[in-house]
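Handout, section B. The chain below has 121 residues.
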Amino acid sequence: MEVGMTAKLMRVAEGKVERESGVVAPEKVLAGNPQQWTEHFFTNKKENFFCGIWSSDAGKWSLTYSEDEFCYIIDGEAIITDADGDSERVTTGDAFCIPAGFEGTWETIGSVKKFYAIYEE
């Protein structure tokens, strides 16, 4: 922060930023034709911490995480399966973390919306 400048609270609210959309990368898709949307709210000065709202419609795709991610499911449900085949169903109101190094799949059931906060070394 520059000398003489004070840090200000930054509120996170839907509809305050531009919404981006696109398909999940075709080489990762295992089922369906999932679309995803992101409202990105904040990136820190080091560009290694991010937060926003992400959503998708039905589909299943492979995941490989290089970052740590905190997630809070705002609406809907998904099934997250790790490389060993262990699955967790996450639904509205669930909070969880996905650590760097995680490999597996994400399956959106119907549609899902989550708040995310990502940290990457």
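Note. The chain has a mean pLDDT of 92. Compare this with the example in section A.
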